[in-house]
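subagent[fold] <- orchestrator: predict structure for attached chain, return tokens only, no commentary.
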Amino acid sequence: MKRLTEACGRHARLCTVGAVALLLAGCGSKQEFYRLSAEKSAAAHGESSISLGVGPISLPSYIDRSELVFQSGPNEFQIPPNVSWAGSLQENITSVLARDLQGILGAREVLSYPWPAGRSPARRVALEVRQFHGISGSNAILDASWRVENQSGLTIFRGSGAFRESINGDGYGAVVAAESRLLEQCAASIATSLR
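subagent[fold] -> orchestrator:
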């Protein structure tokens, strides 16, 4: 009986040591979370009465995920396991694009898709993103097309653009900052078709 008790005690200690080792191994890699942000655009003179909505936004499957995607070679992409978006990338792009357009156009309000109950903007901007990522040792890229629709859903304008922005500094924060500036470039191009 004494041997059985000693064996159980050793087993319990080994299990405890193993659990602590697993816990410490998990703590070795810090999780990082990022969000895109609207740029401080110089607002248009005066206040526009334009009724505008942004969305829906469609993303390619390679970036429609919780982790950041980074191009490390001509045909190679990296998905760092500890670097994620803080929330939905699609929703983040929609809200940032809406705020950038609001600042550029001087609009009182720009709604994000899905529209609030009982509200239907007179102009709607739908965006199809084809590429949106950082490139190692280079810059960040946004390749997108958009259509402007009227309140009935009829397309009244189509546009597209490929935008590049330098990555200033090291780390994923610099990549996300460059991607935020890309959305402002895209918003400026969209705004020309709304004026």
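orchestrator: received. Logging for downstream: The helical segments are 2-27, 89-105, 172-194. Confidence is low (pLDDT under 50) at residues 11-27.
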